[in-house]
Specification:
The complex is a heterodimer.
Chain A: H1 11-19, E1 23-27, E2 30-35, H2 39-48, E3 63-68, E4 80-85, E5 94-95, H3 99-114, E6 118-128, E7 131-136, H4 143-151, E8 156-159, E9 162-166, E10 172-173, E11 179-182, H5 184-192, E12 202-205, E13 208-213, H6 217-220, E14 228-237, E15 244-247, H7 250-260, H8 269-281, E16 283-289, H9 292-303
Helix pairs in contact in A: 1-2, 4-5, 4-9, 7-8
Chain B: E1 11-13, E2 20-25, E3 28-33, E4 39-42, H1 44-55, E5 58-59, H2 60-71, H3 77-92, E6 97-99
Antiparallel strand pairs in B: 1-5, 1-6, 2-3, 3-4
Helix pairs in contact in B: 1-2, 2-3
Classes of the chains: A alpha+beta, B alpha+beta.
Chain lengths: 304, 101
Amino acid sequence: MPDLTVGELQEQDLRCRMARGGLYFETGPFVTRLQSPIPPFARSFQNLYAHYPVVDDSRIADFTIQMSGSGGMRRWFRRQAIADIDFPTPFVPMAEAHAQLMFEMGLNWAVASRTLRYLIFHAAVVEKNGRAVIIPGMSGQGKSTLCAGLIHSGWRYFSDEFAMIDFDDLSLIPYPRPLSLKNQSISVIRDHFPEAEISNSLTDTPKGTVAYIRPAREMMSRVGERAQPAAIIFPNYQPDSEAEAYPLKLAEAFLVMTMSSVNYDRFGETSFDALSKLIDQCGVYNIHYPDLKTAIQLVEDVAA
Amino acid sequence: MDLSNLDGGVTWRIPAGKPLKWRRWDEASVVIDLDSGQTHYLNLFSMVALEHLEKEAVTTDQLARNIADYLDIPLDENLAGQVSGLIKQFDELGLIEPCRI
């Protein structure tokens, strides 16, 4: 267990670190340096990242993110926040009340843009009995809802956002972050899993209503343990569909995975070889399901 | 069927030394062009065509005949049109080039 976690910091200490040189904390294999003078954001951040290790500021940060507040008239009227990273981003300011969302987007952008150690796919990852399942998915196909359901049904939480694969041995690297739920998914998870630690909802964001599941302490306890990928499952939530799981043609699966990767194009033959081996090693399936309970059972069946 | 005027009888080939790396599964493949870094998905039809072009330089009509033989499908205008379209795509992607024999 870490010596110190974000949640164990006194509020004054946290705000002091964030306002000065920055708070250094670990998320999976990365160290992030976070600076922010925005008190409501500091409180929200501390709640969601309570179980994440604080590390010494002598560590070299992989990413520096500065959550800046408003200037000029905006200091008094409709305050805003924006994530500044040490390289260009496409972000525009959001309402200060949505600063947590802005931060999560900023950190995702930094990981996707700057990580050269791993082959990364936009996908959720869960693991059980040493068998990891990669769940790629475009927005709205049910990736996060399914991931949330699985991690409250006995699966270990690896990531909701990025499947990170070591080029050498294809192992998956845990990268658990607060799990983002949107719109109807929030009530679905609240109804199915009352024990889930879900934040207050952010309403009227560019993504609709957003809430986050805080990774529970036990979810963070095995963050150093990698796992081998056993299956790739493409979720398709369709309210009127029958439960169905069927294998994908492997060349098609390869193509779809290249499209869901954030850095496949950077590594040429290396990523081609790694993805080829990944496809050979995993069963690749489409699943169609009308509800979360059915989806969880399909994943259990396919990954068994 | 007379296909001799397809594309004006131009002969096509994969450029000498073009670094293509293949991974074949079932009836489809992916191939990476290590020059451009681009990865291409090839269904059975385009896979057979590119494999023929990898073996030898051919005209579009020769390629259409080869594909018809290999896949045991009729050599007709439909096939000729598909092969012409495929040659055009391969050319645009930089996978093949016209040549003189």
